Amino acid sequence: MSEILDLEKVKTNLENINENLKKLIAGEVLDNCTLEDTKLQIRSIRNACSQGTQAQNFLIEQEETIAYMQMIVSKDLQAKDLIELSWQFVANLTVQNEKSQKFVWDHLGETLTDDIRIHPIDNNTDKKLMIIYNICRGGLVECSEKFALTLLADIWHRIVEEQSNEELVFVDLFFEYFLVTNQWTLRLYATISAQNRIDILKYITTYIRNDSPNGPIRTILMEYISKEFKKKADCILRNSGDMENSLHPQEVYNLLSVISCATGSELYYNIYARDDALFLSAGALLQSIVALGKKEPNQFTPMTKLEEVAPGSNIDTSFELEISFELKTLLVRTIGNLLCTNRHNQQHCIDTKLLPALLECTNMDARNPLIKEWSILAIRNACYDCPEIQHMISELTEAGQAPNQLLTELNIEMGALRIQPKE
Q1: How many structural domains does the chain have?
Q2: Residue 357: what pLDDT?
Q3: Cα distance between residue 278 and residue 235, in whole Å
Q4: Which of 188, 241, 406, 414 gives a 20 to 30 Å CA spacing to 126?
């Protein structure tokens, strides 16, 4: 008997809410008392959803509910606190209830997704994403996982672009579902646009840097990232007028960013340590970039002048937006990690004559922050327990000071050393 009375109370609250929201949309001003009562009533029906499917089904069976939901997403309604409570209600309505999920998607799906894409990232974004998450996980509504993954990538792109500090719990939960739990994500990832793939790779890099808090990313996806890098790595060195292909260098950069982080993590190192082709591809790309940088000045030429590296320099920093910025650092970092206690890769280093390229990277370069430090680590890992490479290093002799524009400007005589093999 008490449950029937509770449902009747919910129905009465819903009628009052609809009436007051209609007045607001019509431009009427509600007194503070009425506004507060409306908020309490919205909280009441929001909390009623937690009673289970019976309460949720009761709510969606009320004729006024459709009109109420349309009011929720009205662009004319400026009462932010009421909108927030309303989104909370819709989100709670979709929790573990296939019937209400279908109802919400049929009546609000298109409007909801448009709203997510159009509005700036705010505290309601997470509530809207929770609705999509619940519907997607329900599995019986025509909300495809490809659509959801694309929407998620778009949201992450905007979070990065807008430098949003909003705490979006369901962004991480949704990504966890796709990257850690869902066994079909690779099929989805392979079919979405290049820009969406890039945005997902950026999230993966962030996720790995944060020590994979919700569990390791599925091995099959990490292996595919290596496969894609090896297949597309050489596009860094050439241009294409095709719009899709023009994004490939950025994609390669972000593939490499994931790999450079992953090879330094115990969770993923073994996936890549046994991938000989990955080491060879990274080494070949580094050698090509080093050689290219020695030709006439280009985006791969090291920036070593004082005016280029000084913190207060007035030099145009647009180079930081080029695909070459930090690229060599990522390559050297990846190579260094893959050389760590890895006899096969140490032998590849010898066979491909990679050591000179690593030595070239020990100079300061404003295009590649921390490249000197990563190069030293890479050389150290190459030498560790490898007599052949140790012997190669020992055969190098001092041949005077290497050209160093920075040291010349500072009038410092003791600088880096030029090295050459013994004759």
Answers
A1: 2
A2: 96
A3: 16
A4: 188
| Within-domain flag for 415 | yes
Chain-centre distance for alpha carbon 255: 11
Q: Cα–Cα distance between 281 and 382 in angstroms, integer?
A: 17
Look at residue 291 and tell me if it is in a domain: yes
Contact 354, 286 (CB under 8 A): yes
Contact predicate 250/323, CB 8 Å: yes
Long-range contacts: 76-84, Cβ < 8 Å, 24+?
A: 76/25, 77/21, 77/24, 77/25, 79/24, 79/35, 81/39, 82/21, 82/24, 82/35, 82/38, 82/39, 82/42, 83/124, 84/123, 84/124, 84/127
Q: What is the CATH number of the domain that holds 61?
A: 1.25.10
Backbone angles phi, psi at 140, to 5 degrees: -105, 0
Domain end marker among 143, 165, 181:
143
Query: What amino acid is encoded at 296 in this protein?
Result: E
Which token pair is 286?
A: 């580094």
Cα gap 128→210, rounded to integer Å: 25
From residue 240, alpha-carbon distances to 124, 199, 247 in Å are 40, 21, 9
Question: Which pair of tokens denotes residue 118?
Answer: 């159009």
Retrieve residue 144's tokens: 């495809």
Which residue, of 82, 108, 143, is where some domain finishes? 143
Q: Two tokens at 73?
A: 């997403």
* CA-to-CA separations, 261 to 122, 170, 265, 273, in angstroms, rounded: 30, 24, 7, 13
Asked if residue 227 belongs to a domain, the reply is: no
Only one residue has tokens 């004729």, namely 63
pLDDT in tens, 233-247: 999 987 544 445 668
Helix axes 80-93, 125-138, angle to 10 degrees: 10
Q: In terms of domains, do 423 and 279 share one?
A: yes
Lowest mean pLDDT across 123-137, 232-246, 322-336, 370-384 = 232-246
Residues 6+ apart with CB under 8 A from 33: none
Residues spanned by the domain of 402: 275-423
Q: Any idea what DSSP says for residue 50?
A: G
Query: Are 281 and 139 in the same domain?
Result: no
Q: Tell me, what's the pLDDT at 113?
A: 87
Q: Would residue 16 count as lying in a domain?
A: yes
Q: Supply the pTM of this predicted model.
A: 0.87
For the chain, what is the mean pLDDT?
A: 86
DSSP code at position 397: E
